[in-house]
Automatic annotation (TrEMBL):
Biological source species: Halodesulfurarchaeum formicicum
Gene responsible for this protein: flaG
PANTHER family: ARCHAEAL FLAGELLA-RELATED PROTEIN F (PTHR42200:SF2), ARCHAEAL FLAGELLA-RELATED PROTEIN F-RELATED (PTHR42200)
Superkingdom, natural source: Archaea
The UniProt record lists the keyword DNA-binding: no
Name of the protein described by the UniProt record: Flagella-related protein G
Length: 150
C-alpha cells in the first residue's frame, strides 16, 4: 500500500509541475498577444480617424505643370485627426511610381487640422500629354485615388 501511495504522490507532483510550466508558458503567450492587440487597436483607431479628400478639379488643367515638372494637389483633412505636415507621412504614387520629392503647405490654418486644406506639391514628375494619369495617396492607412488627364 505504501508503494501505491508513493507512486500516486510522484505522479501528482509531476502533474503539478507540468501544469505549472504550461500555465507559465501560456501566461507569457497571452501577455504578448494582448500587447500586440493593443498596438494594432491603436493603429486601427488612428486609421479610422484619418481621412483626406483630393479637392483639386481634375479638369482645371492646373494639376500638372510641364514647365516645372510638378504635380500639385489640394488635399482636405476630412477626418477627426490633426495630420502631420511632414512630407514623409504622405505616401504618393503617380502612375505606379513611388514619389518622395514632395512638400506639404497648409493653406488656411497653422496645422493640418480637421477641415483645413493643404497643398501637396510633387517635384521632378514627367508626364505625357493627352493621357490619363492616376495619383494614389496613403496617409495613416487611408488610401485616396485621384485620376486626371494632361
Amino acid at each position: 500500500m505504501a508503494i501505491v501511495s508513493s507512486e500516486t504522490l510522484i505522479l501528482f507532483i509531476a502533474a503539478v509541475l507540468v501544469a505549472g510550466s504550461v500555465a507559465g508558458a501560456m501566461t507569457g503567450g497571452v501577455s504578448q498577444l494582448s500587447e500586440a492587440l493593443e498596438d494594432r487597436s491603436l493603429d486601427v483607431s488612428q486609421e479610422i480617424r484619418t481621412d483626406i479628400e483630393v479637392i483639386s478639379d481634375p479638369g482645371s488643367g492646373q494639376i500638372y505643370d510641364d514647365g516645372t515638372n510638378t504635380v500639385t494637389l489640394l488635399l482636405k483633412n476630412t477626418g477627426s485627426n490633426t495630420l502631420s505636415t511632414d512630407p514623409t507621412t504622405v505616401d504618393t504614387v503617380i502612375d505606379g511610381q513611388y514619389r518622395t520629392d514632395q512638400s506639404i503647405e497648409i493653406l488656411d490654418a497653422t496645422q493640418w487640422e480637421p477641415g483645413s486644406v493643404a497643398r501637396l506639391t510633387v517635384s521632378n514628375v514627367t508626364l505625357g500629354t493627352d493621357t490619363d494619369h492616376r495619383v494614389v495617396l496613403n496617409v495613416n492607412g487611408n488610401r485616396e485615388r485621384f485620376d486626371f488627364r494632361t
